[in-house]
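Reopening closed ticket. The problem is back. First fold of the pair:
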Amino acid sequence: MAMQIDIQSNGLVLTDNLRAYVKRRLQFALGWTLTRRLVVWLSDINGPRGGRDKRCKIQVSLPNGRKTVLIEDTEEDLYAAIDRAAERADRAVSRQLARRRGFTHEKLVTAAPERDNER
């Protein structure tokens, strides 16, 4: 099943090139996760006043009822904000999935010695 990426913008024009860049960048960063749905919000906080105000916010809905990961990054350049948010989302999803696996693994390791003692 393909990953669904919903992109919304506020205060800036969402061009076809920008839309394609966001999809390509997120497929590269998060395509391994089996995530079915991503929501991306792109915004220009200060409008024409300028400054470090281009925001990219990414919401990753993890499969099987796991937590939702929400990442936000603000930079002067929108493409830099997208890149950085995608990298951070990749790391956050990896951590979230590792915690889940780690918790299960710890339970199995803890339970195994008890069974050996009973024999």
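Second fold of the pair, where the issue appears:
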Amino acid sequence: MDLQVAIDRVTLDKAIDLAKQLDTQVDVIEFGTSLIKDYGLEQIHAQLPKLQHAKLLLDLKTIDEGEYEFDKGFATGDILTAMGAASADTLTKVYALSQSRGKQLFIDMMEIAADKTAQIVDHPAAIYGIHHAKDSKAGFDAAATVAAFHEDYPMVQHISVAGGIDLAMAQKLATQGIAESVIVGSAIVKTADPVAAAQKFMEVMHK
């Protein structure tokens, strides 16, 4: 299982420093939506050196103007996100563009009902992100939610999960063997030693 580290709500200088530190330690480095809104794709492209190991995910959360946003985003990132709430046509277009560029679409499934999900699970190379809303006050059992999603949509090949993932849950998800990647934010980037924290996550995920 891959480890994706989400960097957000910091200065661009801090984000770049964290990305450099974590590049060789994790599989995917995510620059979050707020960071992109604060600084823009052009600044990020101009200032972030090319990563040597990790893939770069830009959490655009595209919901319309898909081809335009993905064309711009792929100048910098390897994986871009679109919302599952986007129209089926938008998702089809950004999926096709991702495939033509040899890159990847991440579909954020936050707050998506079953009827809409059934309409958009036909993109085999896309990552489907089970994403617990940060503002939600409801509880979230990542492993149970992943298992239920997999049972309902066994055709989905690439599942990612985010939402308060700690070491115990990361290990549980790895043992479960359904999710392809787990997304961790504060439990790594807000620690005194992000590299050591990332290494600990990698250790428990690959026991």
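Update: turned out to be a display glitch only; the data is intact. Residues 67 and 108 are 17 Å apart (CA to CA). Residues 33-47 form the longest helix (15 residues). Please close again.
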